[in-house]
Amino acid sequence: MHSSDAGGALAGLRVIDASRVLAGPFCGQMLGDHGADVIKIESPEGDECRGFGPPFVDGSSAYFRAVNRNKRSMVLDLNSEAGRETFWQLLETADVLIENFKASTLRSWGVADPAAITERFPRLVHCRITGFGDDGPLGELPGYDAAVQSMAGLLSINGEAGGEPLRLGVPVVDLTTGMNAAIAVLLALQARHRTGRGQMADVCLYDSAVSVAHPFLANYLASGNTPRPSGNGHPNIVPYNVYQTRTCPLFIAVANDRLFAKLCAQLGLAEMAQDERYKSNGQRVINREAVDAALAQAFAQLDGEAFGKQLLAQNVPAAPILDMASVAAAAHTEHRQMVVRRDDYHGPGIPIKLSGTPAAIRRGPPRLGEMNTATAPSER
């Protein structure tokens, strides 16, 4: 599958992606989208997320296909000496290794310390992804998105006000870790330009989860007050919530006093924006219930779709709540190429657009072990 002949920003870079499931594969796909030659190492059984379905396409789950394009698959039995020897040989010519092996697995291979891999391969950038890191009170424990969401406090602030904690529907910890891993790889490659040496990048789910607990962690550190779920509301900004109109719900995200005055003017509540109780965001947060009650009453009389467009025309952030079918069909999604339907591959688009070295979907997700067969692609 070739959508462009452009090499991409990372053309010439060889990546061995020995990770599985989501965070590591997402990192590898990001590098592959921008031109890296990514070889995905799989066990004879394959990455288990090939089975995370239905739906399935060509025998692999949509889940797997969404994070493994622009890769080739090589099956290696790393429990065997022959498989490990092939793996080490691949690293001799690789620029980057992405892996999420258990530390105990590495020790069983004779690697006492993960840092020893870059000692053996001095130019290699080794991106090690774990649940909690390899040391500390939780070191070497396995990490799973929902469990780390829970342990990092994300469930405690998600959900309806007064309700039970709720898992974020999107696997935000795995995806954030994958993005952090890609950033780590690029930082280490930049350092290698200067020093001539690679290094290990230690990226873990727990650190990533704590880092995105914003602004709740920062609020706690500043105030000592433990945050609780607040539904669609924002702990630091009012109005920032869903309001039910006569026809549909609208999300309103008014982040400054000027926008609040515009919103009030459009709602026929201009005097509210001059009231000392509501004039500044700080006062609106203190008087949140009164603000929300007044706005809810005004919104309830309006046609949501038409009024939302009217607000946007005045640069007031307003958005209908769309389902995935609507997002996939949206004109702007198509314009930004954020859904790809090409040949036999349907999946999410590429969010980073570079003007000089654009990313490209050169191939769809790999068949398990395609590089082990006689018909494997011959390209680097």
UniProtKB/TrEMBL annotation:
Instruction: State the EC number(s).
Output: 2.8.3.19
Identify the stretch(es) annotated as Disordered. 351-380
Q: Does the keyword Zinc apply?
A: no
Pfam families tied to this protein:
CoA_transf_3
Q: Which GO terms describe its molecular function?
A: CoA-transferase activity
Entry keyword set: Transferase
Q: What top-level branch of life does the organism fall under?
A: Bacteria
User: What InterPro entries does its record include?
Assistant: CoA-transferase_III_domain, CoA-Trfase_fam_III, CoA-Trfase_III_dom3_sf, CoA-Trfase_III_dom_1_sf
Under the heading PANTHER family, the entry gives: SUCCINATE--HYDROXYMETHYLGLUTARATE COA-TRANSFERASE (PTHR48207:SF3)
Quote the protein name from its UniProt record: Acetyl-CoA:oxalate CoA-transferase
Q: Which organism is it from?
A: Achromobacter insolitus
Q: What is the lineage of its organism?
A: Bacteria, Pseudomonadati, Pseudomonadota, Betaproteobacteria, Burkholderiales
